[in-house]
Amino acid sequence: MFDLTDVGYIKRITVGSTDPEKLAAEEEVRVSADLLNRCLSEPPRGRIIGIEKNFAVLNIGEHQVVLQSMVYHVGFARKPYWLE
């Protein structure tokens, strides 16, 4: 059983676009998703302890741009050595 008192390190991983001036490329989204999968599968395994869902519709000239992102908070008992 997972207990929040065991969490000693939290990694915040953003997947998607958050800045209207610089839209996230598909490669950036893939890199973020790969990091999230690594955090959840490699030892020491992390657990998702929180999720932020962000959504914004912007009008740029005659076009509408939709920004979507998910921010995952992954908790670890200690900081993994493979995280920068």
Structural summary, described in words:
The chain is of the alpha+beta class. It has one domain (about 5-75): 2-Layer Sandwich (Translation Initiation Factor IF3). About 20% of the residues lie in helices and about 45% in strands. It is built from 1 helix and 3 strands, in the order βαββ. It has one helix at about 25-40, and strands at about 10-15, 45-60, 65-75. Strands 1-3-2 form a 3-stranded antiparallel sheet. About 5% of the residues are buried. The mean pLDDT is about 90.
List the SSEs and their pairings:
Blueprint: E1 9-16, H1 26-41, E2 47-60, E3 63-76
Antiparallel strand pairs: 1-3, 2-3
Strand content: 35-45%
Task: Give the class from helix and strand content and strand pairing.
Answer: alpha+beta
**Overall helicity:** 10-25%
- If you average the pLDDT, what whole number results? 90
The CATH architecture can be given as: 2-Layer Sandwich
Q: What is the CATH first-level class name?
A: Alpha Beta
Total count of strands: 3
Largest sheet features: 3 strands, antiparallel
Low-confidence stretches: none
- H/E series: EHEE
CATH topology: Translation Initiation Factor IF3
The shape, in one word, is elongated
Tell me the number of helical segments per DSSP (H or I, 4 or more residues long). Answer: 1
Task: Report the radius of gyration as a whole number of Å.
Answer: 15 Å
